[in-house]
Amino acid sequence: MTTPSREELRGEGGAHRIIDMMTDEVNRWLRERTTTGDVYDATYDRRAAAGEDVHGEATFVMRFSPTSVLDAGCGTGRVGRQLARRNVEVVGVDLDAEMLGTARRKAPDVDWQLGDLSTVDLGRPFDAIVMAGNVMIFLEPGTEGAVLANMARHLSPGGVLIAGFQLQPGRLTLGRYDEIAVATGLAPAERWATWDCAPWVAGGAYAVSVHRRGCGLAKSDTGGA
């Protein structure tokens, strides 16, 4: 049986049918996810109850004083919810309807949208885009360029794209990530080893990278990048 095209599906149920087809067949995250949104969030709730600061990503983003943030690959909305509590206008986008269900229950006033990061059109720019939670290495291989190009289109001039992800064999490398980002017009600005700004050392297992739309920063301003 031939799989229907996206164009054919548009007339039979709209965007949600398209998302369903796409996620069933090609989305790495949905193939590999082993938990629910509520279970995922419960881990962070327990850590917070024990006194741990679990909002390092939001604190990092606030260094750039954004008034609007796109939480790209938002999942349960953990980062976006914290940013909203800090009076930032937040829009969250994710391909996982189950995870978004948790986000919507916990923060119904935030704009959570089901969408593909490579094609979603929110019709507006943002001061910052954050891609936490290993979003970049859960993209389907080969779609990274389309995703970063679309994210760049959603950035205001001078806006920042912030991505944190693990560096694992067989997954996206930092060199390739930088190459794709530069090709979309994003200039390297900062690189750190953690969300609390531990210095980056080559060969590390995790990196938080900041790229800026429309302008670069001097080497002395890049956190050693």
What does this molecule look like?
It is a single chain. The protein is an alpha/beta fold and 225 residues long. It has one domain: Rossmann fold, CATH 3.40.50. The chain has ten helices and seven strands. Strands 3-2-1-4-5-7-6 form a seven-stranded mixed beta sheet, sandwiched between helices. Helix 5 crosses helix 6 and helix 9 (144-153) packs across helix 10 (174-183).
What is the domain tally?
1
Strand order of the largest sheet: 3-2-1-4-5-7-6
Written as H for each helix and E for each strand, in order along the chain, the element string is: HHHHHEHEHEEHHEHEE
* Named CATH topology: Rossmann fold
CATH class: Alpha Beta
- The N- and C-terminal alpha carbons lie at a distance of 50 Å
Report the CATH architecture.
3-Layer(aba) Sandwich
Beta-strand content estimate? 15-25%
The coarse silhouette is globular
Task: Give me the secondary-structure topology.
Blueprint: H1 6-10, H2 15-26, H3 28-32, H4 37-49, H5 56-62, E1 68-72, H6 78-85, E2 89-94, H7 97-106, E3 111-114, E4 126-131, H8 135-138, H9 144-153, E5 155-166, H10 174-183, E6 186-192, E7 206-213
Parallel strand pairs: 1-2, 1-4, 2-3, 4-5
Antiparallel strand pairs: 5-7, 6-7
Helix pairs in contact: 5-6, 9-10
What key attributes describe this structure?
disordered C terminus, 10 helices, 7 strands, seven-stranded mixed beta sheet, Rossmann fold, 225 residues, alpha/beta, disordered N terminus
Compact summary:
This protein has 225 residues and is an alpha/beta fold. The chain is built from ten helices and seven strands.
